[in-house]
Design brief:
The structure holds two protein chains of two kinds. By secondary structure, chain A is mostly helical. Chain A is 55% helix and 7% strand. Chain A contains ten helices and five strands, in the order E-H-H-E-E-E-E-H-H-H-H-H-H-H-H. In chain A, strand 4 and strand 5 form a beta hairpin. Chain A is globular. In chain A, 44% of the residues are buried. Chain B has a single domain, classed as Glutathione S-transferase Yfyf (Class Pi), Chain A, domain 2 (Up-down Bundle), CATH 1.20.1050.10. Chain B is built from five helices and no strands. Classes of the chains: A mainly alpha, B mainly alpha. Chains A and B meet through helix 3 and helix 5 of A and helix 2 and helix 3 of B.
Chain lengths: 188, 124
């Protein structure tokens, strides 16, 4: 199948989180999808047709059937399910809602995260597994808020280890280069 | 073409659309909307756009668990807010009306819609 991936053109932490998710997942699970993401990002290709719009969300598009997804977490799961390297046959569990998604959604919406919130999220991650959907989602959702904070990063070595794994570090660099973050001043 | 013929060809077109999607794609579309249901208030525009092109949220020929989950999440919002702007939310309201009248036991109190209300033509 032939997929095209598009980064979100939004300038919010939510857009950065979503873009990181699809960049890491495509780099890990489907190199041709990652290449398509590189192409659409470099050419600044935009689509704007209803839900098939990358203004606010990243998009995965099947160019043959026009099937598309705009929810970054589902794109991550879908890329894993259809990945040839994973050889994952369709299993509803692979696409099912992860309970951790609710917590991550609130963090991204609040645009901040505390150490106390991070602790339970990474407690199960004894080692880095870049093929784990849960690890990709947790890392990408929290990364925008702590990646410049050495103090917090030093307390959670899993973050540094995950970020420095070869497949992930390439995807992060590419995403940061192609996602513009604009800080909105807080109203008094 | 008579009424029965038109109904049959519509059903056939829907089935062909379903067949065009792989099993994984159908499941992913269902999963996407199940994931969005808990915070559907942030995705009203996307829901309306999706239902503009599809009868059901996952693009299937019949309703799925995703329709039920999104329906239950969006009904309070539809009753209190969306119904005040029928033109902007017409596809969601059409779908709410369809589900509440075709899926048994989905809701006790139905959303009342003025089906004769004049709406401005939608710009495609």
């Amino acid at each position: 199948m032939s997929y095209k991936l598009y980064f979100s053109n939004d300038t919010t932490p939510a857009a950065l989180a979503g873009n990181l998710k699809i960049a890491i997942a495509s780099h890990v699970f489907d190199k041709s999808a990652y290449e398509s993401l590189q192409k659409t990002a470099q050419e600044k290709e935009e689509i704007d047709e209803g839900t098939l719009s990358n203004k606010k969300h990243p998009v995965l598009l099947d160019t043959k059937t026009r099937f598309h997804l705009f929810h970054a977490n589902t794109i991550v799961k879908y890329l894993k399910v259809v990945s040839k390297s994973e050889q994952a046959s369709l299993d509803e569990e692979h696409l099912a809602y992860e309970p951790v998604e609710a917590t991550l959604y609130e963090i991204v919406k609040a645009k901040s995260v505390s150490e106390d919130e991070i602790k339970p999220l990474v407690a199960d991650f004894s080692k880095v597994d870049v093929h784990s959907v849960k690890q990709i989602l947790v890392f990408s959702s929290i990364y925008p808020f702590i990646h410049k904070n050495e103090d917090v990063l030093s307390k959670f070595p899993w973050f540094k280890d995950f970020a420095s794994s070869p497949e992930v570090s390439t995807a992060i660099e590419f995403t940061l280069k192609n996602t513009k973050l604009v800080r909105v001043p807080e109203k008094n | 073409m008579n009424m029965t013929g038109r109904k049959a060809s519509k059903k056939q077109a829907r089935q062909q659309k379903d067949m065009a999607l792989s099993k994984e794609q159908q499941q992913a579309a269902i999963s996407q909307w199940e994931s969005l249901a808990p915070h559907i208030e942030d995705h009203v525009k996307e829901l309306n756009e999706t239902l503009k092109a599809n009868t059901y949220v996952a693009g299937t020929a019949v309703h799925t668990d995703a329709d039920v989950k999104v329906f239950q999440a969006v009904l309070p919002l539809a009753t209190s807010v969306l119904v005040k702007d029928v033109a902007a939310n017409r596809h969601i309201l059409r779908w709410v009306d369809l589900l509440q009248n075709t899926v048994p036991g989905l809701t006790e109190s139905k959303l009342v819609l003025d089906l004769d209300a004049a709406l401005p033509r939608e710009i495609k």
